[in-house]
Amino acid sequence: MELTLQQIAAAAGGTCCGENRRIASVVTDSREASDGALYVAICGERFDGHDFCAAAVENGAAAIVCERAPDAAVPYVLVKSTRQALLDIAGLYRETRRDVKLIAITGSVGKTTTKEMVWAVLSEQFQTLKTEGNLNNEIGMPKTLFRIAPETQAAVVEMGMNHFGEIARMTAAAKPDAAIITNIGVSHIEYLGSRDGILKAKTEVLAGMPDGAPLLVNGDDDKLKDFTDKRCRVVHFGIENARADIRAAEIEQTQDGMRFTVCFPGGEQRVALPVIGRHQVYNALAAFGAGLLFGVSPARIAAGLAGYVPAGMRQRIRRAGGVTVIEDCYNASPDSQKAALTVLAKTPAKRRIAVLGDMLELGSFSETAHRQVGAFAAEAGLDALYCVGEASKATAEAASGSLPAYWFAEKSGLFSALREAIRPGDAVLFKASRGMALEEVIQKLYGEWNVQ
């Protein structure tokens, strides 16, 4: 990174106080500061970064961006909002590296999985950077841009949001060359009012893209299948939509994953994807489209998808104690819970047991959504349903007329019941929003089964 403090002050609309130092890196955590670093003092809900300015300087920070004069003897840039300044500085650095092909990924469900698949595809041909973990908000996304290195040729940047304007601010900094919208569901509907509101928020990604840039959207999504915008070139991917530009056909599910043929303008390519579920095919189609847009050959795209590895707690399948365990505890929405239940229903097993926790941030739609999932579970051909959390009581109630359904207020009760119920030969799905920490139950069961 080669930026000066005066350049940063100009980009952030701030006032430079002190000498014009060169900046080698940007951090928001004082513990990560090193020689030549710029420390941005973020004001959070539970902390104030201004309290750690002295610590940042002790660790080598050369300068500070702040909303009030710091208690540290280094040059600083005074700004109205350090959160906005962080985005402005990231945008300044991105402007110096427009040679990097950057694709933004947003949507209600499947962002992180799609990001990982796109990374696997682009890495077949380019030195590719990706968003790490869930750093997809206005604080985390700039950190990805700051990691663009001299050797970086492509970047896959995930953008999440809770409110209007967040993606617009992120895309202004990232300046994507292309973007993907995975789907329009009901995640964060509590803050956005309706699916139309969610569509409006997701399409803010276009604001930072060049006119005519490609936007890949899910052609089977009712809010996206007819989507057009004069600012971009819309490319549809899908399974059911015969008009989709990139389409999957001849889909098969095996114990090891999904097999399908991708039909695209000018050809076809057989793909073997090492994860199961029809919803994963949509993620792979988006990644396939990204590869085509960036000039990766169909064969190399297929090789990248074949090497995809699920991230974190997203639908990892393990065999433990004679039980097939589907771990999917990172996040949950009505669409993703239904997709996971479909995966479970198609998993070979003596019995199929679903363990579902609350779906969070659904606002007034919460009870309806949980009942919809319960009704879906009742028709999915499962053998039992276990639910935990206050909101999931509605899920158990909706399913109880058609299959054995049990509800627990606490995870301790759920664990005790599962320990007695699960037997070798069963397939068990664990799915809930991140805040439910359902993986704690899985780890306790693994402990009972002596699984590392």
UniProtKB/TrEMBL annotation:
Q: Where are the transmembrane segments?
A: none
- One GO cellular component term, please give it: cytoplasm
Stretches assigned to the Mur ligase C-terminal domain: 315-434
Under Gene3D superfamilies, the record lists: Mur ligase, C-terminal domain, Mur-like, catalytic domain, MurE/MurF, N-terminal domain
Protein's cellular compartments: Cytoplasm
The domain of life for this entry's organism is Bacteria
Q: Which reaction does it catalyse?
A: D-alanyl-D-alanine + UDP-N-acetyl-alpha-D-muramoyl-L-alanyl-gamma-D-glutamyl-meso-2,6-diaminopimelate + ATP = UDP-N-acetyl-alpha-D-muramoyl-L-alanyl-gamma-D-glutamyl-meso-2,6-diaminopimeloyl-D-alanyl-D-alanine + ADP + phosphate + H(+)
Q: Which residues bind ATP?
A: 107-113
Residues forming the Mur ligase central domain are 105-290
Record-level GO BP terms? cell division; cell wall organization; peptidoglycan biosynthetic process; regulation of cell shape
Mur ligase N-terminal catalytic domain residues: 23-89
EC number(s) per entry: 6.3.2.10
One matching Pfam family is Mur_ligase_M
- Give the main EC class: ligase
Keyword list, A-Z: ATP-binding, Cell cycle, Cell division, Cell shape, Cell wall biogenesis/degradation, Cytoplasm, Ligase, Nucleotide-binding, Peptidoglycan synthesis
Q: What is its main location?
A: cytoplasm
Q: Name one GO molecular function term.
A: ATP binding
Its annotated pathway reads: Cell wall biogenesis; peptidoglycan biosynthesis
Family membership, please give it: Belongs to the MurCDEF family. MurF subfamily.
Q: What functional role does this protein have?
A: Involved in cell wall formation. Catalyzes the final step in the synthesis of UDP-N-acetylmuramoyl-pentapeptide, the precursor of murein.
Would you tell me the protein name for this molecule?
Answer: UDP-N-acetylmuramoyl-tripeptide--D-alanyl-D-alanine ligase
Lineage, broadest ranks: Bacteria, Bacillati, Bacillota, Clostridia, Candidatus Fimenecus
